[in-house]
Amino acid sequence: MPAEIRTAEILAVGSELLTPHRLDTNSLYLTGRLNELGVQVLAKAAVRDRRPMLREWVRLALSRADLVVTTGGLGPTDDDVTREAVADALGLPLRDDDGILESIRARFRSRGLEMPAINLRQARVIEGATVLANPRGTAPGQWIETGDRVIVLLPGPPRELQPMFEEQVAPRLARRTPPAPLRRRVIKITGRSESHVDEVAQPIYATLGDADVTVETSILASPGLIEIHLEGRGVDPRQIDDLLAAGVERLTAALAPYVFSDDGRALEMVVGDALRAHGWRIAVAESCTAGLVLGRLTDVPGSSAWVVGGVVAYANEVKVQQLGVPAALLQEHGAVSEPVAQAMASGVRERLGADVGLAITGIAGPDGGSPEKPIGTVVIALSGPREIVKTLRFAGDRQMVRTQSVAAALDMVRRAAVSRG
Amino acid sequence: MPAEIRTAEILAVGSELLTPHRLDTNSLYLTGRLNELGVQVLAKAAVRDRRPMLREWVRLALSRADLVVTTGGLGPTDDDVTREAVADALGLPLRDDDGILESIRARFRSRGLEMPAINLRQARVIEGATVLANPRGTAPGQWIETGDRVIVLLPGPPRELQPMFEEQVAPRLARRTPPAPLRRRVIKITGRSESHVDEVAQPIYATLGDADVTVETSILASPGLIEIHLEGRGVDPRQIDDLLAAGVERLTAALAPYVFSDDGRALEMVVGDALRAHGWRIAVAESCTAGLVLGRLTDVPGSSAWVVGGVVAYANEVKVQQLGVPAALLQEHGAVSEPVAQAMASGVRERLGADVGLAITGIAGPDGGSPEKPIGTVVIALSGPREIVKTLRFAGDRQMVRTQSVAAALDMVRRAAVSRG
Q1: Helix B338-352 to helix A316-323 angle, to the nearest 10 degrees?
Q2: Is the pTM above the cut of 0.90?
């Protein structure tokens, strides 16, 4: 029985992938399918279509991974050199395949065309390769076993690559992959920095996994959101799931109340579900975020059931006239202050007839800071089920301050809704 | 004088880049900027954050390219191993940098926090490296010359990476790159489909370029925005610039009035500049976009000079009570109708005391469509300098409909402001 395939590298071929305008999206599809088959992707690369350089990349990839998947470079033109470069790397000759030639000819014929001479190239097959038929295009794929390793050549267009993988590559791989599925859980956190989360999580990471299941963790940070990814690998899917669930529980307990989701839901979905569960409808008064909180709340289909609307009070006179914030309060405390935020929250709740009022006022920069209220100072207030107000300080530029403010405001609603659950 | 830098490889570090969910978008930005500096990108790769494996990748990349740029893996946690792996590959030790340590401490202090011990790692510098300061985050970059070659370590977050490249890497590279410049112009268009734009532009592409300058064109489409990129290559920068300017002029003439920018400005900036030029202040009433128009208008620093604020009228009662839309109008025509949009636009303008009132109401889906008003039906109205109302029909899912609606609404303001110029 041939050796198991546990690791892979993906090699996307084509100079157009090395321009500022094109991303290799095939690798996302392939990574997802390989993971489902229990294969971990060690690395992926996009390489220019130069034969000697590509030969070297193929040789190195085969020295590192059990499986190498190339995409692209199987067309009929001069810059389609994948077949040749892989043959070079393996030290194997290419032969003309009459079956392929006939099917390419037939393809042209069916459209009333003569096959151009350059398409002859596409009938070239590496010695010993299994041909992977391509009913959706002219370029067939190839499956080559070399020692314990496998290299698969796939065409570049996703509409050709994906069915070829499903129908011809996945079944072959399934016979060579360990019965060791890879399962994944994601914990989403807001209101803490990456390093704070990591400090709490590190000791728990060490307790994950056992003799049968290995768990890999990674942490991902973006403004207002930290994600912990747990990847479990083993033999029994039920066992992996149980172990990951225990890990999620331990991490969630240690990081509560900052964890808002462990089932893939985004923060605005968690907030929407909590509001709907209570039968509460929300209205929002926004100054520095100027509509972005409402924009995110209404990203969720069906959100008209829990979102009434709101007022974007960018100018102070809007705070007074549309929200009923007393001018004296603005005068005395300034627009970015707890009393004003509270008046905005109760004002928007009452005037729009909502159950929950949420307000945000702050200094996003780059101008408007002062020694007492530097850029990044943001006040968030909630009115209705409870009266809450908080002053926060965010780092970063205008966009980061705004993004973090939106997350903090949504999270205030979540906490108020959940704690009343 | 050190050898010229003509080729590069980009190495994105992080296991999260080897999942089915994340693409490395930094490489597009870096490729664009490197090309402008005359550097060709030979290959790019995403690699897991395992120190021995990463060391090997760095070593190989340095054997193939004049310049290696790594992104990511400079954070404070255990899986941030880029510093260590590059030091291994170069056979150089790491030292602690007091200056970096102090600036990270100060960053935490400014937010009233103690620096966690794990952030100490971020102060580690490879011997002989030039430290690239990072005012937008805790992870500094590093520039290391090794023989004729250069390796640059950049942080992963684009908002930290991009300014670091502009301010600290590009000027250093410019001293080492060949004087064969690549110049680029971008024309931004809204309100037309990609195929419409392409049909008009194709015959003009053929007229670009001459014996001394080659021009490459590409077209990029996203919801509500089409960009035409012109890349000119030659010997004399002035000659390239003149040729590109003539091309921009010809394309703009053929595509007017859909072209809103040829100088890099985003639509919200063009709108802001036009409003400011007139001394007009704007208020917005949003239903289906629920704050996203105001969110984009206020992305621009200083926008409080031309944005008053607005009302998000998601529920019908908000349209009546906060905007003064007659209930009878809603009853007779429905919320997504031209008379209601006009009433919202004039209502928000009058009630908020603005010069320009803008209103949007529509059906973003996935629910709420009907045979007469299918999903994607959006009505936009403007009140003030002129009274305009338009019914549009957008394709795509909820998010695409909303994004296209925002662009169309902003563009209605642009056209009204420009035509009164």
Answers
A1: 110
A2: no
